[in-house]
Amino acid sequence: MPAIEVSHLSKSYHGTTAVADVSFEVGAGEIFGILGPNGAGKTTTVECISGLRTPDSGRIRVLGLDPHHDREALRQVLGVQLQESQLPGKIRVREALELYASFYTDPADVDQLLEQWGLADKAASRFGKLSGGQKQRLAVALAMVGNPRVVVLDELTTGLDPHARRTAWGLVEQIRAAGVTVLLVTHFMEEAERLCDRVAVIDRGRVAALDTPAGLAARGPAAGQRMRFRPSAPVAGADLLALPEVSRVEQHGSHLEVTGDADMISAVTAYLARRQIIAAELRVEQTSLDDAFIALTSHDGGISGSPAEAGVGGGTAGR
Known about the structure:
The chain is 30% helix and 28% strand. It is of the alpha/beta class. The protein has two domains: 4-211, Rossmann fold, CATH 3.40.50.300; 218-314, Alpha-Beta Plaits. The chain has a six-stranded mixed sheet, with helices on both faces. Strands 13-10-12-11-14 form a five-stranded antiparallel sheet. A three-stranded antiparallel sheet has the order 2-1-4, with helices on one face. A hairpin with a 2-residue loop joins strand 11 (246-252) and strand 12. Helix 5 packs parallel to helix 6 and helix 8 packs across helix 11 (289-297). The longest helix has 16 residues, at 162-177. The protein is elongated, with a radius of gyration of 24 Å.
């Protein structure tokens, strides 16, 4: 049995559709990511899964439980850290954990949680005095205080500095190592690539794609290689785009960014060599989940401007 089943979920607010026909399953022990632009319906989806909102239509099961009809039973097996979660500024860390522990029939040991999540030296500190990273660690500890089998983490690392963000990633990996299924809502592509076994991209209230992070990157319209360089002489973007190996050419100031298949780099390099043009400041990258995400959630067709006819300039071209 999947840990989470969502089938044809829909939810509207005052005539505005937030979620329209969303379906996916999350396997037991999986870290499953939900990605999407702001307003795509991510938080509404996880609030319906968590039993905080009632869907207009569709079917949801978490460990076989209906979040609406089996709310009390679900609360004993599901931990939730929501994006807008806040505590009173004067409550102390230990007090918050003990309060939440009182809601469960078989809670985790508070001292063990304080130690596990690096909060032992902050047990007597007030919530309002904690740093952003410490607040996030407390949010995870509160989500785990009921010994859940499934945990929902909504925008866990928003607002954190890079060091605190990576620390939070380690916390998520610890949760999965304990056998807990994780539903992770994020808009950081690096976070999804690092943590998630699979991801669903939600756009305009619908699932636009569902795959592993590597699978999404590989099957995107710009999948393959990308090179960025400053040519030593004018380059006709239309000529580069005419190469069979090239799928897209973009201008970024004095630099060109060329995307194509696995043979694109050698084809472009040969083109430049024939014209005795040097590719200065050359960078070569694999296309990423970020590229796939932009392609899936962009509604301008992925093309702006027209093929470059002469010079470094020439707008953006894609085919």
